[in-house]
Amino acid sequence: MQEFHSAIVDLSHVLNQQPNSAEALLLRSKVYAKQGHTTLAIKDLTAITKNDPKNWRAYYERAYLRHKQVEGMGDDSASLQPPMSKENKADGADAAPHTAVTNIPSLIGQTIDDYMQAIRTGCYLNDVIETVGDLTIRLVEWTHDAKHCLQVVGGLAALIALMDETEGKLKDQRRAAAKAQSIAASHDTTLWELEEDRLAKVIACLLTQRGRLYILASTDLDRAVIMDYHYAPAHFYRGAVASVRACDDASRKVVIHHLNRCIHLDPTITGAYIVRGGIYCADLRFNNALQDFKAAVTIDPTLDDIWIQIAIVFLTHYHDCDASAKACTRALKNDLGLTQALHLRGEALARQGNLKAAMRDFVRLVVMQPTDRFAHLMKGKLLLQLDHARPALYAYKQFMEMGSELDTLDRITRGKAYKVLSQHSQAVQEFKLAVDANPSPENLCLLSESLHSMGDTEASLHVINLAIASDPGCAKSYVRRAQCYIGNHAYKTAILDYDHALTLADKSELYRMYYERALCRSQLLSKAWNQLYAMQRGERVPCYYENNFQSGQPLPVTLSATDMNTTCMTAFIKQTYVDTAADFTKSMKASEVMSDPYVERAALYALGGEFNRAYDDLATAIKIDPHNLNAYISAGVLKCKFSMYTASIECFDKALKFHPHCALAYYNRGVAYHILNVWAQADSDYTKSIALDPTNMDALRNRGIARCHLMNFQGAAEDFEDVHKNAPDDMELHMGLGYVYLKLSRFTEAIALFRSLSSKNPVAIDAYLDAGNTFFTMALCMTDSTNMTAALSKADTSKSLLQQSLHCYLRATRINPTDVNIRLNLAALFRAKGDESNADFHDERAMMLLETGQFAHAMEHMNAAVNISVALSPIVAMEYTLLVKNKAMALHELHRRRQQLTPSAPHPTKRAEENGGGTRRMSVAAEVLADKKSILGIKKTLSVHLANRGKVHELMLDVDAARLDYLNAVYFDPLNFDVYFHLGTLAVHERKLNDAIEYFSQALVINPKLGVASVNLGVVYLLLQSYDLALYHLDMASTLIPDCAFVWANKACVYLKLDRVDDAVRNFSYAMKCMPTFAPFYVYRGRLLSSQKHLHDAMVDFAAALKMGYTGEL
Fold first, then answer.
1. Which of 420, 445, 710, 1003 has the most CB atoms around it within 10 Å of its CB?
2. What angle is formed at CA 342 by the lines to CA 339 and CA 343, rounded to 5 degrees?
3. What is the 3-state secondary structure (H, E, C) of 793-807?
């Protein structure tokens, strides 16, 4: 500052000697400006203009200082105030702010005059000319008076005329010199060309600024481009003016051409990006529009309106709520009072599920603008979603009260508000009044929608027909009528209306129409499939017609009566399937940023068996919208179909991450855990699903099952009772509820349920079995009672209950005599009667002790059972004594019997040839059984006990004793296939594979339906590397016991030996379906998948195995 003061002192000495020195005055004004004394600087510059009116630099510097004051950048704020007299100095402090504001327009006018004078006196800088245009527009916006614009246009016109005259003189001089052909002609010509080029650029700039200020803009701008093609603002304003009249594709291409040229010449002109972005938006090229808008805000981040446009594009066209909210936040950083940005950010946050943040924005709106009705409306909607019903009601009331103050033309808004409130009758009343005042197609469509919401489909169709009659070219009316037809299940008629609407619709409406038509075809496809299934079941399917409330002949629902057959229906389904997929594809092309069509088409592909395409569509939907709930749930359900439960749980986890209040996601994840037998997690998920949706009966039923496995029978009873109230005829529910009552000792209720079930289904084995178990349990409770005062009556009651239990077991035995569970229950019942002399008692007791690992005690009971059976007949006792003393006797008898029995046939043809021998053997056995019934029965019983004792020896690793008991059992009952099976299994463990083949073959000769023998025989052939025979027997086993997982696992091993890896993987998948919790199957399939380079699927299998507790090597 000391240097500035010294400079001013020196310059003042110079001016004392030379008062009119322009250089000194100009330099001193710059020093004053540096010090912030703007008034003194302007005073010096004014002195220069008085002494030298042609000094453009003084005008330019004075205009620049005044421009800084207009922008608020000048430090000398007192310069904005007029000089005050002594009389009004007392009031100066109060009047200063108002005076400053009112003098800004005059200050802008003085700045424009200075810039114009600088141009007249020789300042031909483009920035100065462009600043004149900017300040003129600002002055007009401030004063709302066009006379300022006219004055500037007149000044620019005079300058253009002057420059044209100067340019004409230069051209005349150049032509005259060319005629003279002097020696210096070439040098002068070059100078003249440079001067002409400079003048042309100045004229182009003047024409551009004049063109932006008045209505005859296009002529000036075209001439400006001709004068200086490389002047970027001329191209920009040329494109901006053309965009006002751009109404078709050709005119929009011209606008974009001008703007592209401008951006190519000068990439920093933000207006060019903004106008081009607007043109792209009008042409539905939103990606290009976003790029231009982002470029504009990158150059100038203070463009709040452009931030808002970016947010609108993200929200309405890309449905990217997060990006829209960020753009609004950026705009609000520049100006906290932007209500439109608050509206948009609140809507985006609400769609994201961030209701509390959205609520804060709408509360700010209500505070800033208490008369904004729609801020109250959105606030009420969010309060309702947050379960604040009463504040939401007050907000809705405020919205309606504000609307009641308006005139009757606001009926449409009131009707829409009533629709939001679900008060459809009042909405219909408002829309009827609006239609009476203005029966436009839009108002008729709104009335039709409200009538449809009320359930009055006929009236809704009548109204929409009136709308179509009033304006046949309105596509929305046909879409509305198609929706009414869909509500009435008239799908083919609705498709015809969609077809007609597509011929009338704009480009922006095509996506929704194609999508709705595809959904309509999907429903038609489901109806056709149901009819085809009925035809395949042999049912008669009549031809029904659509009821669309119209006169004339309606269309058939699917096919006409003449074509109602399986062949025509199949062809119709195929064609409808193809048309539906095509509609979804067209919808995707019309809007590439929507994920719903991909989800629906995936469901269509899954229905048609095209699962790979379904997976691809769901992956695309998730890529477009990573928060899409339906996409994650559909992907999880689809993976469950292929037993990929771990992957499906991951999908449901992602769905719940973005939508933590989705009951369906919790339910589906619970089902996946249910299938994996992870009962605690399944119970937790079912509970969360029920809390969110108490009407989900399937979740209640499944939670009851999970609680049974968790031993929470009281909770299971509550769940089953709730389901029973809604489904009293569910047979399986009767069984589950009865089982739970039995566990809770509520015997009377359990018996009542079982008897009810048996009366409704006389062949229900489980009902009789469970009823018998209930009586049996009640009898045991009576027996265990320690109250001796009523011992006699309790004994009688116990006997009565045991008798009723015996009756139920016998009824079940008559329905299915081969049921093992019934036989075991009968044995337990007989043991309860205290029949100690019965050998079956000791046998069953031994098996029970065997399960607990008490081998010694089990062997004692087995020996007792054998001794009791031997003592029943002297003949049997003698034979048994001989067998014990002569151990080779049983082996010789076995060889003799094996020679008599028909050998096993490895192929069906050979077995068919020997059917005669099998028939003769059975007839002989029947004759023997008729002659010696009692002795044969004893021998058969003894054979069973000996075989069971052999199992005990085998578990005790006493192989010799086990083999001896098995041989003795075969001696007493040569047709006991179970013994041959155990002999074969024993031979496999001892690696006597040929003997094992003989034993298993004999077992299959006696009982060809013994699936486990076929399995083991297949394993033996696998060990002998006879893969064809192994496959044959394993195939036989798969037909006999298809639910046995080890059948498929062994088949997979055979295919692996044959290098048929794909077949091996498929069979391991079948095995996993049978035993979904057996971890080694997942490991084996994972190894095969990794060898095929399917690493992702292999990792899923390994992860599932580890989660199930597998500790081996992967």
1. 1003
2. 90
3. HHHHHHHHHHHHHHH
Instruction: Compute CA distances 925 → 325, 358, 898, 928, whole Å.
Output: 88, 87, 15, 5
Question: Measured between alpha carbons, how far is residue 299 from residues 235, 271, 306, 309, 335 in Å?
Answer: 19, 10, 12, 16, 18
885, exposed or middle or buried, with CB in 10 Å at 0-12, 13-18, 19+? exposed
User: In Å, what is the CA distance from 371 to each residue of 374, 399, 871?
Assistant: 9, 9, 105
Kindly indicate the confidence band of residue 201, based on its pLDDT and cuts at 50, 70 and 90. low
Residue 171 or 83, more confident? 171
Q: Find out if CATH 3.30.300.30 is the number for domain 301-398.
A: no
* CA dist., res. 701 & res. 687, Å (int): 11
Q: How far apart are CA 379 and CA 372, in angstroms?
A: 11
Alpha-carbon distance of 521 to 515, in angstroms, equals 10
818, 1002, 1012, 1020, 1045 from 1039: Cα distances, Å: 19, 20, 11, 19, 13
Say which residue the tokens 């053309």 belong to.
242
Residue 736: closest CA among 710, 708, 711: 708
Which residues are CB-neighbours of 665 under 8 A, at least 6 positions away?
Answer: 629, 632, 633, 652, 655, 656, 659
**In the numeric block, which tokens belong to residue 56?**
């453009």
Question: Cα–Cα distance between 856 and 846 in angstroms, integer?
Answer: 9
- CA 752, chain centre distance (Å): 46
Instruction: Give the whole-angstrom CA distance, residue 283 versus residue 445.
Output: 27
Residue 701, CA distances (Å) to 230, 613, 721, 1024, 1076 in order: 78, 34, 9, 50, 21
Residue with tokens 């044969």: 936
Cα 740 to Cα 703: distance, rounded to the nearest angstrom: 13
Averaged confidence pLDDT in the chain: 76
* Residue whose C-alpha is closest to residue 479's, from 431, 439, 520, 451: 520
Provide the residue ranges of all domains of the chain, joining segments of one domain with +: 216-299, 301-398, 432-505
Distance separating alpha carbons of residues 345 and 323, to the nearest angstrom = 10
Structure tokens at 884: 């014990």
Distance of CA 630 to the CA centre of its chain: 3
CATH class of 216-299: mainly alpha
Class of domain 432-505: mainly alpha
Query: Distance between CA 799 and CA 926 in Å, rounded?
Result: 38
- DSSP per-residue codes, 38-91: HHHHHHHHHHHHHH-TT-HHHHHHHHHHHHHHHTT--S-GGGGSPP--STTSTT
Contact 402, 377 (CB under 8 A): no
Cβ atoms < 10 Å from Cβ of 471: 13
The 3-state DSSP class for residue 126 equals helix
Per-residue pLDDT tens over the stretch 926-946 = 222 323 346 777 777 777 778
Q: What number of residues does the chain have?
A: 1114
Which residue type is seen at 534?
A
CA distance 268 to 390: 53
Among 707, 685, 712, 708, smallest CA distance to 696 is for 685
Assess contact for 952 and 842: CB atoms under 8 A.
Answer: no
DSSP 555: P
pLDDT, tens digit, 9 for 90 and up, residues 1024-1082: 888 889 999 999 988 888 888 889 999 999 998 888 988 999 999 888 888 888 888 88
Mean pLDDT of 641-666: 91
Question: In the structure encoding, which two tokens stand for residue 934, read together?
Answer: 């009692």
